Amino acid sequence: MPPADRIRDHAGLGAPTVTAQRARRRLRADRARQLADLLRHQILTDGFPAAGTLPHESILATEYRASRNTVRQALDLLRAEGLVERLPGVGTVVVAQKYPHGLDRLMGLAETLHEHGRVSNEVRTMGPVPAPAPVAERLRVPPGTDVLYIERLRRLNGLPLSLDLTYIPLDLGTALLSCDLENTDVFRLLESRTGRRLGHADITLEAVNADAHTATVLQAPRGAAVLMLERLTHLADGRPVDLEFIRFRGDRITMSGLLHRSL
């Protein structure tokens, strides 16, 4: 057989093998992502008996009916997230902790995370500013009207957790200027100063890339994904009083809520 024919025959026989190998790799990658999701949930809910250390790869492979290669690939995904690390002679250990933030109750950050440590606030900027049109519309004040603007870096147990940008109508915000914003949630201050209860909030949650300023303040890699929570809080009578843009470090917070189906 001429060499050219042998090459063509070899290529023809090899093509299905290459395709099959690629399909197997894709399938293993899919299974690894699925397993990583299950392991992440176990880690975040303290589902493993040995706190801080994951079971051996062989045990995980047996429990989840996966190959050792799939288990290793899943652990690599969690390691890339910064959630776990492999230590020689120890195994796979949890190196980062995510804190639960509920989405079904209207609470300040310190109220939400009180079981996990102390929330402290570094007030970076505070004072009246002309309300940009979108802010004025949301707070129902005339465009250009002064509102109180507050920028805070919020830490949990000393670690940067979120960067909060807050806008409050000035007739309510002026009373906050002399308050202890470093140790008290704005929600508590609004209720104590106005003597009125907060009622409800409209929220939007999305992932955004950290800009240079946010990354520097949160001590996160520039361009890293952060969770952006936009929240417009109303008094019980419906008046909007607090518009916030909160950027959370995604590697330190997890959002959860209870949803009821209604048609």
Characterization of the model:
- It is built from eight helices and ten strands.
- It is of the alpha+beta class.
- The strands form three sheets. A six-stranded antiparallel sheet has the order 4-5-6-9-8-7.
- Helix 1 crosses helix 3 and helix 2 packs across helix 3.
- The termini are far apart.
Per-chain topology:
Elements: H1 3-44, H2 57-63, H3 68-80, E1 84-87, E2 91-94, E3 99-102, H4 109-112, E4 119-130, H5 133-139, E5 146-156, E6 159-169, H6 170-173, H7 186-194, E7 198-209, H8 212-218, E8 225-235, E9 240-249, E10 253-256
Parallel strand pairs: 3-10
Antiparallel strand pairs: 1-2, 4-5, 5-6, 6-9, 7-8, 8-9
Principal-axis shape equals elongated
Beta-strand content bin: 25-35%
As a percent range, the share of helical residues equals 25-40%
Strand order of the largest sheet: 4-5-6-9-8-7
- End-to-end C-alpha gap: 71 Å
**Major beta sheet summary:** 6 strands, antiparallel
Helix/strand structural class = alpha+beta
Number of helices: 8
State the order of secondary-structure elements, H for helix, E for strand: HHHEEEHEHEEHHEHEEE
Ranges where pLDDT stays below 50 over 5 or more residues in a row are: none
Overall radius of gyration: 25 Å
Number of β-strand runs: 10
Overall average pLDDT: 88
